[in-house]
Amino acid sequence: MTYDDFVKSRREMTNREFGRLVKDSMWEDEPEQTFLVYADSFYISALGDGRYDLLIGNEETITSDTTSLSDLEKQLFDYAQSECYPEWQQRDTGLKADDASSPNP
Length: 105
Hints:
Strand content: 15-25%
Structural class: alpha+beta
Order of helices and strands: HEHEEEEHH
Shape: globular
Number of domains: 1
Number of helices: 4
Largest sheet: 5 strands, antiparallel
Number of strands: 5
Distance between the termini: 25 Å
Radius of gyration: 15 Å
Mean pLDDT: 85
């Protein structure tokens, strides 16, 4: 999946809808929040005041005068690629996941 494909996959939904999509009930009891969901697996939270929030591990980035939504999308894409690269390569090229791994140990 390319960066452009990743951004084009963006869908807006609530945190609860996202939880149902990924089969995770952790958001059912949380206050409703808007998520921007990418590749049906990764999300950026809308804070409700025009800003967006990306949390990866313990690192949180919020849009500001110097950080745009596009900046967050690039960070999320880089993370998603590191998590999904073999699957995305397989889908894009027809390779099996084992074929996409490095031949060097």
